[in-house]
Amino acid sequence: MPEAAPERPEVTLEREGPIAYLTFDRPERLNALSMRMLDELADHLAALEDSDARVVVIRGAGKAFSAGYDVSSDSEEIGDAHARSSVADRDRQAAYIDRFTRIWRSTKPVIAQIHGYCMAGATQLALFCDLTVVAEDTQIAASPAIPLGGGFISPLWSFQVGPQRAKELSFVAGRRLDGRTAYEWGFANAAVPAADLEQHVRELALSIAKTPASILRMKKLAINRVQEMNGFLTVASMGADTDALIHTTPDVAELQELVKEIGLKKAIAHFRD
Q1: Rounded to 5 degrees, what are φ and ψ at 96?
Q2: Which member of 64, 125, 148, 198 has the lowest number of beta carbons within 10 Å of its beta carbon?
Q3: Alpha-carbon distance 30 to 24, whole Å?
């Protein structure tokens, strides 16, 4: 019996001098975040710790950085939702945060290179990166287009854009910003024309890489500690509890069932009508 072909990686690693590029590689799903993808991301980050890479860039293949958590009808997030207890659901959300904190804890500066779409959970991931550069025409949304959860992603936005803007992004399902506005609000370090994004990030990474690795490590640690003292990681972990609680409501259960029955795109259209 022939051996099964190995699964294609969902995150690829490429090196260019002192820069390590980690690329989400599920373009057929707009790089929607699966637990497997986040595990591969964490594994690459761990392997890079002992490498001579100075800077890590996280980016997406195809048309998008990432469409956020995979909430398609055949995903684990939706398909297994009714089978999970509230505690198991909370642990699942906490597992996302654990993967994101691998970015936070990495001794290397990590840049999010964002183009196309950056939705919901993908923005959450970007908030754990050290620097964020977006294409001006990027479409960014802190919450998904259909309200399947709450209080998980948007609270972290308040650290970047303030509580009132975070509430606006949270209360209006699928509320979008373009890259220019996201920069003006404080989500990104820079917004550049899409054609210039790759080169801009490369030049930024190379300028960072001129600083010795030990100094970069301590600078990142020092600034991260300020965020931690202000409650950044506590807020992130609390979000898992809030999301698990709201998932027990009949409203969310109804929307999850709708996604399973008619698919995500039709469910979004139904919700908007």
Answers
A1: -60, -45
A2: 198
A3: 9
Read off the DSSP letter of residue 195.
G
Mind listing the pLDDT tens digit for each residue in 53-100?
Answer: 999 999 999 999 999 998 764 556 554 555 678 888 899 899 999 999
Assigned token pair, 31: 């790089």
**Residue 245: what residue type?**
L
Give the whole-angstrom CA distance, residue 192 versus residue 115. 10
Beta-bridged to residue 60, according to DSSP, are 24
Q: What is the CATH number of domain 11-272?
A: 3.90.226.10
DSSP 214-241: HHHHHHHHHHHHHHHHTTHHHHHHHHHH
Amino acid making up residue 72: S
Q: Where is average pLDDT lowest: 68-77, 92-101, 186-195, 222-231?
A: 68-77
